[in-house]
Every structure is written in structure tokens, then in C-alpha cells.
Design brief:
There is one protein chain. This protein is α/β, with parallel strands linked by helices and 249 residues long. The protein has one domain: Rossmann fold, CATH 3.40.50.620. The chain has 6 helices and 11 strands. Strand 7 and strand 8 form a beta hairpin. Bound molecules: adenosine monophosphate. The electron transfer flavoprotein serves as a specific electron acceptor for other dehydrogenases. It transfers the electrons to the main respiratory chain via ETF-ubiquinone oxidoreductase (ETF dehydrogenase). InterPro entries: ET-Flavoprotein_bsu_CS, ETF_a/b_N, ETF_b, ETF_beta_N, Rossmann-like_a/b/a_fold. Its cofactor is AMP.
Amino acid sequence: MKILVAVKRVIDYNVKPRVKSDGSGVDLANVKMAMNPFDEIAVEEAVRLKEAGVASEVVVVSAGVAQSQEVLRTALAMGADRAVLVESDVELQPLAVAKLLAAVAARENPQLVLLGKQAIDNDAGQTGQKLAALLGWPQATFAFKTEVDGQQLLVTREIDGGLERVALDLPAVVTTDLRLNSPRYVTLPNIMKAKKKPLETLSPEALGVDVAPRLKVLEVSEPPARKGGVMVPDVAALIEKLRNEAKVI
Ligand code: AMP
């Protein structure tokens, strides 16, 4: 089984994002970037399936600026075999990414495409679902556990109030949730080995995909500053405040 894993370069989750002074977006100048955490989980799952003898090849793909090579190299150091960068300086929205991934899937013919459930920069949570629709493949989102059973993939999904188990015919699209696994740390020898692994660069034009944004961002603003908390002397005072000030009861 060949697995394709989509990895996005995003602002590192430890960094507090700053909004540009003109409100046109988030300031990325001199900001530490890293692989989207849900995509690390997707790479880990693919590498584990390879180590278990289920997958034969793990190909990682990223769409974005040239520096996205860094997250691809990290994925290669985690154990992926090969990387594809679809290089573009255009701001790529989920529909454009899904179209690019569909075009890469058409070239690579994977039996499984793994993505994160959401990118932590835009919190869109759309790309996997759009990709499955474009390919016409079954999808299981928010995966908590995966098991391969012949030509089927059994996925336990996190849903409101519990877990749901679904069986998908392959090829299929799966998006990862937080509890699927704990991604490994990359070791120095593996980082060195990853430098020699193949990384192919393509363009959206070569894949025949129009990546022009379909949505226009009107304004980006900081969330309102939180007001300071107040200590109340007793439960009666708390209820009085909830009723008369917050008006929530
Ligand atoms: P989103 O729909 O933007 O929240 O992203 C969901 C998932 O789609 C991410 O966790 C990635 O696996 C994948 N993805 C989104 N954008 C990109 C990108 N530019 N390159 C590669 N994968 C991406």
C-alpha cells in the first residue's frame, strides 16, 4: 500500500501570532515555523503502517512557499521515503490545496491519503473533506485509531460524546485527530539521512491547477483583551453576579 501524507508549514504552536498593523493578516516576518501538529500525527501513523509491513511507501506532500521544504525534510527524518513540494507564493486556500493534492494523488496512485484534521493557522478543517469529494473516495475524519483489514480500512473516529467505528473501501482519505498517536522525535542521524532522500518540486501550473484565492479576507484583528478576574466572597455573590452582571442565568 502506498500512502500519501499532506503536511503544512504553519506558525509553531508555541508562538503567539501577531496581527499586522494594517489588519491585512498575520505577521510571519521572523516567526518560527513548524509542521502542523496534526500532520506530524499523520506522518507518524503512515510510518507506523510501513513499519508494520502494511504500507510499502510513504510519500509526503506540501503546498506552499519554498521554505516548506523544511517540514518535508522533517517528515523524511521521521521515516517518510520521498517528498513532493508544490511550490507557490500565492496564499493557498483549502479548495486550492485539495485540488493540488487531488492532482498529486492522480500521479502517485496512493491507496490512502492521510491529512491532519485541521491546520492550526487557519483552523479551516476543510481540506481532507474537499479532497475526498474531488477524488470521489470514501473518507473518515478525526481518526482515533486505524486498522487495515484486507481491502478495507477500519477507522475509529472521535465524535461528540464518544467513538464511532467505520469501514472504508480503499483508496480512501483519512484525517487525524490528536489521540491517534504520539509522534516520534527526529534523531540527528535520521535528519542527516533525510537530506539524501528524494524531494521533487512541482508547480500548480504543471499540475494544471488554478490556485487563485476564491475567498477575500476583509480584515484580521486581535481577539479583545480579557478583562481581569474578580474574587467573590461566597456562592451567593457569585450567583448574584452571574444573574445581574453576566446575565447568563
Ligand atoms: P485545513 O483544511 O486548512 O484546516 O487543513 C487540514 C489538513 O490539510 C492539514 O492538517 C494538512 O494535512 C492539509 N493541508 C492544508 N494545507 C496544506 C498545504 N498547504 N500543504 C499540504 N497540506 C495541507
